[in-house]
Design goal:
The chain is α+β, with helices and mostly antiparallel strands and 310 residues long. It folds into 2 domains: 3-191, no CATH class; 198-309, no CATH class. The chain has helices spanning 3-23, 29-34, 99-110, 171-196, 237-244, 260-263, 269-274, 296-309; strands at 27-28, 36-38, 41-43, 51-52, 63-66, 80-81, 87-90, 114-121, 124-137, 142-147, 153-155, 160-162, 212-216, 232-236, 248-250, 256-258. The N and C termini lie far apart (64 Å).
Length: 310
């Protein structure tokens, strides 16, 4: 890696650290597009194309991007986790010799560190770095992407290296990649569910986002438990815990039921006002769009589990 390429990437990593300290995981797209100044030149970090190479870098892309989920629509490039724990990032188009695919192939050969932008919701992206291209499957039209620990990066006199070069098959880094991808999916799901429920608990209308969670109706461990808003309900921490522990059920008609033994229990005002009060009441908040509301068949299945527990 030449000196210019290394310095631009290090500046990009430093810029992302600053943005993350201000905005957390969800970075505004407009700031990523605006980018940073490098020796008098503007360097954006992403573009509408998934594989992005700013003008200042002549050969190897700076970033790759997975666009946000749009409810009910398939992503144009549906990146997945492979059986080896690595991200399968789809080609640009179907031609292995497209210049963007050639650029990622060069990144693989040189083990150049990249930035991975994951769309959480429209306009907000998580930035993961460093990632590296560690494999290619032309039959699947994809590259294998590995997330590395930032501490693995070594800055030489004029190069950007990694301890990973000496050990390209690392189970630890595959674990980091899977854990990172899971965290991104969960964060995206939470943001989309809370947005659909107007950042309110569906039961008690609590509005403090730091106390709200996205509850799965069908667990995400189930093959049908996809991270669509229609498989989620925004609940505060108390009602999420009650829902998951089957103290509280939600009928297909969106009426709340509290388990019989809890109704008969006497344990102070929190139990009375936090749970018992909501028995036989309807959810107070539901998404305005019908396609975002809880799927009736999922609620039926989940409520049957609650009924048996009662």
């Amino acid at each position: 890696m030449d000196d210019l390429d290394a310095r631009v990437r290090l500046k990009a990593f430093s810029f992302l650290e600053e943005l993350s300290s201000r905005y957390g995981l969800a970075l505004p797209r407009e700031l990523l597009w605006k980018g940073f100044d490098f020796e008098g030149r503007r360097v954006p970090l992403l573009s509408p194309q998934g594989i992005f190479k700013p003008a200042i870098l002549p050969e190897v892309p700076l970033s790759i991007t997975t666009v946000p989920v749009v409810e009910g629509k398939k992503r144009p490039y549906d990146d997945q986790i492979g059986p080896d724990g690595l991200i399968r990032y789809k080609y640009r188009g179907t031609d292995p010799m497209h210049r963007d695919n050639v650029g990622l192939r060069l990144a693989m050969q040189r083990r150049t560190p990249l930035i991975y932008f994951y769309g959480l919701v429209p306009g907000r992206y998580a930035a993961i770095w460093p990632v590296r291209i560690v494999g290619e499957d032309q039959r699947d039209l994809s590259f294998s992407v590995e997330v590395e620990d930032k501490q693995d990066i070594i800055i030489g006199d004029d190069v950007l290296l990694s301890e990973a070069v000496a050990q390209p098959e690392s189970a630890a880094r595959a674990y980091i990649t899977v854990a990172t991808q899971k965290r991104l999916h969960q964060h995206s799901f939470r943001m989309r569910v809370l947005e659909a429920y107007r950042e309110c608990c569906a039961v008690c209308r609590l509005r403090h986002a730091e106390l709200l969670e996205a509850a799965h109706i069908i667990p995400d461990t189930d093959p049908r438990g996809e991270p669509w808003v229609s498989n989620g309900i925004a609940l505060c921490k108390l009602h999420h815990a009650a829902f998951d522990s089957l103290m509280m059920g939600i009928r297909p008609d969106l009426v709340i039921e509290i388990r019989k033994d809890i109704l008969e229990e006497s344990d102070g005002p929190l139990l009375i006002h936090g749970l018992k009060h909501w028995h036989n009441k309807r959810l107070t908040v539901v998404p305005q769009s019908p396609r975002l509301r809880p799927r009736k068949e999922f609620l039926e299945e989940r409520f049957e589990i609650f009924r048996k527990a009662s």
